[in-house]
C-alpha cells in the first residue's frame, strides 16, 4: 500500500479566512504564511485585530509525512513579529484535514508560540498558547484517476493507518523535553 500512496501526490487545499488577534494596538497589520517543506505561500497584509483574507492556497504534497505549518505575522516598520503558529500533521488523521470538499468545515485554530521537535528534527506539536486564532478550512483531494470505490477503500485504509500512527505518535509525544535530556544524560554517563 505504501508504494501506491507514495507514488501519487495529494492536493492539499487551504482556505485562510480570518483571524482574531489579542493585541492592544488596533493599528496591527498582519499576514499569514503557509509552509510545507520548502514551499511557502503568503497572504496579503490586512489591518486590524480581526483581519479577513479569504485567500485559497493549493499544495502538491508528494510526501504525507510532511506537515503544514501556519504562521501569523505582524508587519512591523523595521522587522516583522511572529504572533503565533500551528502545525497540522498530514500523515495521520488530523482533525483539520478532510478528504472531501463537501465535508470541509471552517475551524478556529488556536495558535501557539513554540514548536516541539522530536530527535529527528520533525515537528511533533506546538505549545504555549498565544491567545490568537485563525479561521481556516483545509481538505485533501484524492488522486483523480481513482474510481469512487477505490477512493472509498483507500480512505478507509488511510483511516486505519492514521489511527495506528496516532496511537504511536501519542506515546512518543508524552515524553517531555526534560525527560529527553535526562535520558540522554543517563546514556552518556553509562560506560
From TrEMBL:
GO MF terms, alphabetically ordered: calmodulin binding; diacylglycerol binding; syntaxin-1 binding
Swiss-Prot/TrEMBL keywords: Signal
SUPFAM superfamilies: C2 domain (Calcium/lipid-binding domain, CaLB)
Record Pfam families: C2
C2 domain mapped to chain residues: 1-109
Record's GO cellular component terms: plasma membrane; synapse
InterPro entries for the chain: C2_dom (IPR000008), C2_domain_sf (IPR035892), Unc-13 (IPR027080)
Signal peptide: 1-21
Source taxon at top rank: Eukaryota
Any one Gene Ontology BP term: chemical synaptic transmission
Protein name (Swiss-Prot/TrEMBL): C2 domain-containing protein
Organism (species): Adineta ricciae (Rotifer)
Amino acid at each position: 500500500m505504501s508504494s501506491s500512496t507514495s507514488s501519487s501526490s495529494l492536493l492539499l487545499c487551504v482556505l485562510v479566512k480570518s483571524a482574531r488577534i489579542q493585541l492592544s494596538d488596533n493599528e496591527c497589520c498582519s499576514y499569514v504564511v503557509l509552509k510545507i517543506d520548502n514551499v511557502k505561500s503568503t497572504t496579503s497584509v490586512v489591518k486590524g485585530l480581526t483581519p479577513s483574507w479569504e485567500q485559497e492556497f493549493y499544495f502538491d504534497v508528494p510526501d504525507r509525512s510532511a506537515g503544514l505549518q501556519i504562521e501569523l505575522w505582524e508587519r512591523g516598520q523595521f522587522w516583522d513579529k511572529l504572533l503565533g503558529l500551528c502545525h497540522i500533521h498530514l500523515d495521520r488523521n488530523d482533525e483539520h484535514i478532510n478528504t472531501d470538499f463537501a465535508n470541509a468545515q471552517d475551524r478556529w485554530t488556536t495558535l501557539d508560540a513554540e514548536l516541539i521537535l522530536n530527535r529527528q528534527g520533525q515537528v511533533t506539536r506546538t505549545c504555549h498558547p498565544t491567545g490568537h486564532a485563525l479561521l481556516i478550512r483545509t481538505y485533501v483531494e484524492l488522486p483523480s484517476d481513482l474510481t469512487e470505490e477505490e477512493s472509498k477503500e483507500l480512505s478507509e485504509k488511510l483511516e486505519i493507518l492514521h489511527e495506528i500512527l496516532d496511537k504511536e505518535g501519542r506515546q512518543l509525544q508524552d515524553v517531555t523535553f526534560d525527560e529527553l535530556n535526562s535520558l540522554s544524560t543517563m546514556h552518556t554517563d553509562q560506560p
